[in-house]
Specification:
The protein has 13 helices and 14 strands. With 428 residues, the protein is of the alpha/beta class. The strands form two sheets. Strands 2-1-8-9-10-11-13-12 form an eight-stranded mixed beta sheet. Helix 2 packs across helix 4 and helix 3 crosses helix 4. 40% of the residues are buried.
Length: 428
C-alpha cells in the first residue's frame, strides 16, 4: 500500500490510501494544397491558442509554410515527369488531391475510418506520400549541384549523363523518397528498448529500482490494436519493479473501442511498486473523462499529486501544461522530503531547472517524439527544455523519451519508437 497525496493546494490537502498495483493546370493542385493547409491552420489555431506562446505559434506556422512550399514543388516536379505519359493530366491532379485529403484525414481524423485494416493501410500510404513531398526537393537540389559541377568541369561520363537526364534521375528520386517513407513507417511501428542507468545519492530501503517508462503511444495514430497487445506483452516480459505511463497514450484518432481494448490489455500488467499514469496534452483534448480507462485497469492516476512508497520513494505526477487546473511546480514540490528520493513524471520536458532546484532526482518526460518530423525539430527545441535522451541538471537526471509511437502521420525518421527501461541505484 502506498500513501497518495494531492499537491499542496489550500483547497485540497487531503491524504488517503489507494489499493491495487497501483485539371490539367499545375495551379489546380497547388490551390488544392493551399485549401488543405488553410484548413489545417484554422484547426491548429483553434486547438493550440491556449497551449503555446506567440513564438511557438509562429514557428509552427513557419513549419506549415515550409511543408506547403516543399509539397507544392514536389507536385509540380512530378507533374513534368507525368506529362511524358499519355494519361490525361487531370488524372494526376485528382490522384494528388486524394493523397492530400488522405494526409489530412490520417493526421487529424483517422478515427473516421472505422475499418482498422483500411485505416492502417491508408496511414501507411500517407507516410510514404508525405516522405515524397518533403524529401524530393532536397534530392532535386543535390541533382542540381551535380549538374552544375559537371557542366563547369565539362564532364561527359555515364554518371553525369544519368544525372543530366530529364527523367531517369527523377524516377530514381521518386523511388528513394518512397523508400524513405517506408523506412520511417517502420521506425514508427517497430518499438525498440532503450536502457538507462542512473545513480541517486539518497537512501532508500531498496538498493535499486527498475522502471519501465512508456509515453506517446498515440494509439490509433501510431499503435494499432495488435500493437497494443505486443506492447503489453513486451512490458510484461521485462518484469519491472514499476511501470509509468507518461501521457498521450490516447489522442483524437483513438476510437472508443480501442480505448476500451487498451484498458483491458493494461489490466494484465503487474508491477510490485505500482503502475502510474500522468496526462498528456492530447488526452486533454478528448471530450470525456479519459482517466476512467486507466483507473479501470488498476492504474494510479497522478494529477499534481504524489504517491509515497514504503521504500521511502516519492513519485510526483504533474498535470500537463495545457491543463487549466495545473498547479505551480514550486507549490507541488514544497511538501516533499528532499532527503528521500523524488521521481517526477512530467509529460513535457519543461521547468526542468525549477524541478532540479526543488529537489527532484529524476524527471521522466515525453511529448517531443524526438523531433518526429525533421522540419519540426526547431519548434520542439523552442517549446521544451530538451528534445531527446538524458540530460543532467546539477544532480538531477532528466530523461525524455521519443515515445512508443507518434502523432498524426505514422512517420518517424530521426529516432526510433521506444520503451525506456530505467535502472536506479540508490547510493546514499
Amino acid at each position: 500500500m502506498e500513501t497518495y497525496r494531492s499537491g499542496h493546494n489550500e483547497n485540497d490537502s487531503k491524504s488517503f490510501c489507494l489499493h491495487g498495483h497501483v485539371g490539367s493546370n499545375p495551379t489546380v493542385s497547388v490551390v488544392a494544397k493551399a485549401a488543405v493547409i488553410a484548413a489545417l491552420l484554422v484547426r491548429f489555431f483553434a486547438i493550440n491558442r491556449s497551449e503555446m506562446g506567440i513564438k511557438m505559434i509562429f514557428l509552427r506556422m513557419l513549419c506549415y509554410l515550409v511543408v506547403f512550399l516543399l509539397g507544392a514543388y514536389s507536385v509540380l516536379r512530378y507533374f513534368h515527369l507525368y506529362k511524358r505519359n499519355r494519361i490525361p493530366d487531370i488524372t494526376y491532379f485528382i490522384l494528388n488531391f486524394l493523397f492530400i485529403l488522405n494526409l489530412y484525414v490520417c493526421y487529424y481524423n483517422a478515427s473516421w475510418i472505422s475499418n482498422e485494416t483500411l485505416r492502417t493501410i491508408l496511414q501507411g500510404v500517407s507516410a510514404v506520400y508525405l516522405s515524397i513531398l518533403l524529401y524530393t526537393p532536397f534530392f532535386c537540389f543535390l541533382r542540381g549541384i551535380i549538374r552544375v559541377f559537371g557542366k563547369r568541369k565539362k564532364k561527359q561520363g555515364k554518371l553525369y549523363k544519368f544525372f543530366n537526364h530529364p527523367a531517369k534521375t527523377i524516377y530514381m528520386i521518386l523511388v528513394v523518397t518512397a523508400l524513405i517513407g517506408v523506412f520511417s513507417l517502420f521506425r514508427m511501428r517497430y518499438v525498440t528498448e532503450t536502457d538507462y542507468t542512473v545513480e541517486v545519492n539518497k537512501t532508500s530501503e531498496k538498493e535499486s529500482l527498475t522502471i519501465v517508462y512508456v509515453a506517446d503511444t498515440h494509439i490509433g495514430s501510431a499503435v494499432t490494436r495488435s500493437g497494443v497487445s505486443h506492447l503489453v506483452e513486451k512490458i510484461h516480459s521485462m518484469k519491472p519493479d514499476m511501470i509509468i505511463l507518461g501521457g498521450d497514450i490516447f489522442d483524437r484518432n483513438t476510437t472508443d473501442s480501442l480505448k476500451q481494448y487498451t484498458s483491458r490489455e493494461l489490466k494484465k500488467l503487474v508491477a510490485k511498486q505500482g503502475i502510474y499514469y500522468v496526462e498528456g496534452n492530447q488526452e486533454l483534448r478528448l471530450k470525456e473523462d479519459f482517466t476512467t480507462y486507466f483507473r479501470n485497469a488498476g492504474i494510479t492516476v497522478l494529477q499534481d499529486q504524489t504517491a509515497y512508497l514504503p521504500a521511502g520513494i516519492q513519485i510526483v505526477g504533474l498535470r500537463d501544461n495545457a491543463d487549466r487546473n495545473k498547479m505551480p511546480v514550486e507549490q507541488i514540490m514544497s511538501g516533499l522530503d528532499t532527503e528521500k528520493p523524488v521521481i517526477v513524471i512530467s509529460h513535457r520536458p519543461k521547468d526542468l531547472e525549477k524541478l532540479s532546484k526543488a529537489g527532484a532526482d529524476i524527471v521522466l518526460c515525453g511529448h517531443t517524439h524526438g523531433g518526429q518530423y525533421p522540419l519540426g525539430f526547431l519548434a520542439v527545441l523552442a517549446a521544451n527544455d530538451m528534445n531527446y535522451g538524458i540530460k543532467k541538471y546539477d544532480t538531477m537526471s532528466a530523461i525524455t523519451t521519443s515515445g512508443a509511437g507518434g502523432y498524426g502521420i505514422p512517420s518517424k525518421l530521426t529516432v526510433p519508437s521506444e520503451i525506456v527501461e530505467l535502472t536506479i541505484h540508490f547510493k546514499g
